[in-house]
Amino acid sequence: MNQFIGSRALPDLVYHRPGTMDDLLGLVKGIEGEYRVVAGCTDFIPAIRGGKWRFADGINVVDIRGVKALSGIREEKGEIVMGAATRLSDILVSPVIREKAPVLADAVSQMASPQVRNTATVGGNLCMASPAADTAPPLLVLDAKVAWRTADGEETTPLNKFFLGPGATVLPPRSVLTEIRFPAPGPDEAARRTRMGQRTAFVCSIISVAVWLRGGPEKIEAARIAMGAVAPTPILITAAESVLIGKKPNEATLAEAAKTAASNIAPIDDLRATADYRKSLAETLTRRLLAACVGDLA
Amino acid sequence: MKHDPKASHCQCGGKMSRRGFITALGVGAAGVAATGAMTARTATAKETPMIPSGEMARIDLTVNDRAHTLLVEPRWTLLHVLRESLGMTGTKAGCERGECGACTVLIDDIPRYACLTLAMEVQGRRIVTLEGLMEGEKLGPVQEAFLEEDAFQCGYCTPGQIVAAEGLLRADPNPSSETITRAMSGNLCRCGTYPHIHNAIQSAAGKRR
User: Fold this and answer.
1) What is the CB neighbour count within 10 angstroms for residue A256?
2) Which residues between 165 and 204 in chain B have a beta carbon less than 8 angstroms from any beta carbon of chain A?
3) Contact yes or no for A129/A169 (Cβ under 8 A)
4) Which chain B residues have a beta carbon less than 8 Å from that of A204?
5) What is the pLDDT of residues A203-239, one digit of tens each?
6) Cα separations in angstroms, A142 against A86, A191, A213, A214, B122
């Protein structure tokens, strides 16, 4: 298939498909040479084809889709738990997500294309650590934690501390992301998200924004604002929270919070949009989302 | 129907050779030497199915209701196997990185990109390609509707469009206009025939009823 200009052939792969968690962790612990843990491969293959990643022949590919325990969505002790290898399309149709965290389903519904969503996984989206990862802003405002395992144990960290930079996370070597969990939102909470892209579908986000509020029409008790594609990683913008907490959610408060949020991001000019445009969008979209959440709480 | 290299109806396996593969990929002699040397590179848990680099693995695939047993390299995508091993060129290679939709196939009735699917991953699965929508020489309802509604210009994206539409109609026989738009958002048409494609899918939904 080398006749396609600009497309590199895949290197020779050593393909592993463990069937249980123990096999997976044992394999990753003992593997020699370079390896990649893959799930959907919807980032893995394009990264090689486009030349972003180059591997020598013999790269070990550990496909985790054979491990049933890594897929699925459940509610457990007031938390919603998603396996890292849960496909995006499964999130979209999950009754638990649709009822308890529609903000996540909303975000996923606009990601990539149906064919990609039928293949790609939520864990893969987070592990690739794209600044524009579209599952990240809603999960950040839902206060999600991620868990990973190695052959020797398990660790959990807030998603807010997970991303280090474009393509970089705190995941230690020889570990596998296993779960994403967040508290099931209560009736006095509201969350909304939106994104802008050059098209409505099948594009990388110019910006994505998610907000979450707890409280009522008289007082905001807690707030979170997260954005994607405005910094080296998806970010939770804590500076804007203090503007909202304890206040009555009137127009002026929401506008100030949106302004604060927009002044605490570090967007860049790139082929999709300018930094100025992103800042302007950040403020406008945040203000609109906050107003919508206040409406939901009323 | 199982694979049988001696039977004339079976398109696979018998023709598959190391040489054929190398010709198809345009890899030179250096490639052969390198793949041979890589074989024993890895350590792995005993129970874990592992296919060494540069070696062919046997997989079973059902493509358009026909069972095939194929020898594949772990790095081959389903797209490569369909086109190069099975000679089924209805599935088109466009961008080969999940950005265009030309290679859309149904895997257990779910539309996915064959270019982003390793053949090893779909072991034992049921694949439907454009060819599988025909009955002999007779076009399927979606194909007929595309013809009638003039839903293509150059036609390169059309197989992917038709298979994506078929996948939609299998999941939702009476899709709303918005559902059609969303379901088809993963298939780009450089010629811009989207309105006709949209009409064709509405018409196909009627034909299938």
Assistant:
1) 15
2) 182-183, 185-188
3) yes
4) none
5) 999 999 999 999 999 999 999 999 999 999 999 999 9
6) 18, 8, 10, 11, 34
Question: Does A118 contact B121 at a Cβ distance shorter than 8 Å?
Answer: no
Does the beta carbon of A216 lie under 8 angstroms from any beta carbon of chain B? Answer: no
Residues of chain B positioned with their CB less than 8 A from the CB of A176: none
Comparing CB atoms, the residue among B97, B110, B185 nearest residue A49 is: B97
Fold held by A68-183? 3.30.465
**Tokens 């079973």 found at:** B60
CATH 3.40.50.1110 matches A4-63: no
Angle at A40 between CA B201 and CA B177, to 5 degrees: 20
For chain A, domain boundaries: 4-63, 68-183, 189-297
> Given B132, B161, B182, which residue is the final one in a domain?
B132
Q: How far B194 CA lies from chain A's nearest CA (Å)?
A: 14
Q: Which fold has domain A189-297?
A: Enolase-like; domain 1 (3.30.390)
Look at residues B91, B106, B132 and tell me which one is the last residue of a structural domain: B132
CB nearest B183 (choices: A16, A31, A114): A114
Tokens of A2: 């080398």
Instruction: Based on the fold, state whether residues B62 and B18 are members of the same structural domain.
Output: no
- pLDDT, tens only, B11-48: 443 334 433 333 333 333 333 333 333 333 334 444 57
Are B138 and B173 members of one domain? yes
The three-state (H, E, C) secondary structure of B23-74, written as one string: HHHCCCHHHHHHHHHHCCCCCCCCCCCEECCCCCEEEEEEECCEEEEEEECC
> With a cut of 50, which residues of chain B have pLDDT below it?
1-46
A217 and B CB contact within 8 Å: no
Structural domain including B151 reads 133-208
Nearest CA in chain A to B38: A58
How many beta-carbon contacts under 8 Å exist across A and B? 165
CATH at B163: 1.10.150.120
Domain CATH number, residue B83: 3.10.20.30
ipTM field? 0.94
Q: Which helix (H) or strand (E) holds A183?
A: strand A176-183
Contact between A116 and B35 using a beta-carbon 8 Å cutoff: no
| Full-model pTM | 0.89
